Amino acid sequence: MGVSREKAAQNRKAIVEAAETLFRERGVEAVGLVELMAAAGMTRGGFYNHFASKAALVDEVVAKSMAKGEENLAALLEHSRRQGHDLLDGQIDWYLSPEHRADVDRGCPNAGFLGDAPRLHDEARTDYTTGLTANMRLFARAVEEATGLSEQDAWQRALALFSQMAGALLLARAVASTDPDLSDQILAAARQDLHARAHQS
C-alpha cells in the first residue's frame, strides 16, 4: 500500500530538514544517503521516491535555506526599525555573537554554505549566488538608511562589512572547540572594528 500525499509531503520535508542540518554541520560531500535517510527516519531506498539524485536534493536545500535567510534578515531589520534600534549595530552584534557562532545548522546560510558553494553543481551554485545577492541588497538598503550614503556607496559598504562579518564568523567557528578564547577574541575584535567603520561617511 502506498503512502498518502500528505505523508509523502511530510517525508520529503523530513529529508530536506535532515539534509540541511547535516550539510551545514559536515559539508555536502561528507554526507551519504544512508546517513541522511537515517537522520530523516527512513531507509536509503525511499530517497528516490522523492528526489532524482542527491544533486536535486542539494539544489532544493540550498534554495530553501537561502530564501529563509532572506526572510530572517528582513524580519531582523524590520524588528530593529520598530524598536528604534540602529540597523547596522544590531545586525553586527547578532551576526558576531557567541549564539550565532554556535548555531551552525540554523544560522545565516550565506556563511553556512560558504565553504561548499564553490564545489556545488551549477544549479545549487546559482541558487546560492541568487540568495546571497538578495541578502546583500537588503543589507545595502539598511546601510543606505543608516548612513545616508548613496545607493552605490551603500552597496560597496555593505559588501565590505558583510565580507568581514562572514569571514570572522567562519574563523571563530573553525577554532571554537580547540581554542575558545581565540574564537571569542575574533568575534570581539571584528565587532569592535565593524562598529567603528559601519557609520563612517
In short:
With 201 residues, the chain is mainly α. Helix content is 73%, strand content 0%.
Description:
The chain is mainly alpha-helical. Helix 8 packs antiparallel against helix 9 (180-198). It is globular. It has helices spanning 5-26, 33-39, 54-83, 87-95, 98-102, 109-112, 122-147, 151-175, 180-198. The longest helix is centred in the middle third of the chain and has 30 residues, at 54-83.
Give a topology summary.
Layout: H1 5-26, H2 33-39, H3 54-83, H4 87-95, H5 98-102, H6 109-112, H7 122-147, H8 151-175, H9 180-198
Helix pairs in contact: 1-3, 3-7, 4-9, 7-8, 8-9
Secondary structure category: mainly alpha
Estimate the strand proportion: under 5%
The helicity comes to over 70%
Radius of gyration (Å): 19 Å
| SSE ordering | HHHHHHHHH
Q: How many β-strand runs?
A: 0
List unreliable stretches of 5+ residues: none
Q: Helix count?
A: 9
Shape: globular
N- and C-termini, Cα separation: 67 Å
What's the main sheet like? none
pLDDT averaged over residues: 94
